[in-house]
Amino acid sequence: MTPRFFRLGHLLKAFAGLLAITFLLTGCNSMKPEDFENKEPRLVLEEYFLGETRAWGIFEDRFGNLRREFVVDVEGSWDGETLVLDERFRYADGETDRRVWRLEKIDDHRWEGTADDVQGIGVAEVYGNALNLRYTLALEIGGRTWNVNFDDWMYLMDDDVIINRARVSKLGIELGQATIFFKKPDGGAANDDTQRSAAE
């Protein structure tokens, strides 16, 4: 009898461990933009991305292998309703790409965005210093077009730096993650009177 109860005890401990892991994973996946409502500094998209912004990024596959390195130059304009982000990518292997986002401000927290290679409408929520952007991107891979899902989280830090983590998945399976750092030129958009005047 003792060995059987001994094995049962181990099984119960293992099951409890699995429940704990599941709880932790569920907790991680339940993060909401509203959780950052009181975080500073406040991220105001139409101010931060007005004018020139530069970003440096990497893409890692789901096994943690570095697959791509790139630099992005972003030119932003704002007419009071639509924020246009003209993104020009330069990859370490010499390839270039371009994406132009058109983001419509719905209210103080919600945005909707479109781009030529985005399927449907991207949905963004901004609270405090954080933004969550979810969209489906059409990627050309091996002569075929694959629709993959992006779940972007951006966090505004001090010194006009944004840290962006994006999870890329298809059919619920994670394909990899992109890590991107955005930086404004010296002075930043929020302190540049010229850029403020151009937005008015």
Q: What is the residue-averaged pLDDT?
A: 84
Give the domain tally.
Answer: 2
Distance between the termini: 81 Å
Content-based structural category: alpha+beta
| CATH classification class of the largest domain | Mainly Beta
- Helix segment tally: 3
CATH architecture of the largest domain: Beta Barrel
Order of helices and strands: HHEEEEEEEEEEH
Low-pLDDT residue spans: 1-28, 190-200
| Percentage of β-strand residues | over 45%
What report would you give on this structure?
The protein folds into 2 domains: 2-30; 34-199, Calycin beta-barrel core domain (Lipocalin, Beta Barrel), CATH 2.40.128. The chain is built from 3 helices and 10 strands. The protein is globular. The chain is α+β, with helices and mostly antiparallel strands and 200 residues long. A 10-stranded antiparallel beta barrel has the order 1-2-3-4-5-6-7-8-9-10. The protein has helices at residues 2-29, 45-48, 193-199, and strands at residues 51-61, 66-78, 82-91, 96-105, 110-114, 118-127, 130-141, 144-156, 161-170, 173-183.
Outline the secondary-structure elements.
Elements: H1 2-29, H2 45-48, E1 51-61, E2 66-78, E3 82-91, E4 96-105, E5 110-114, E6 118-127, E7 130-141, E8 144-156, E9 161-170, E10 173-183, H3 193-199
Antiparallel strand pairs: 1-2, 1-10, 2-3, 3-4, 4-5, 5-6, 6-7, 7-8, 8-9, 9-10
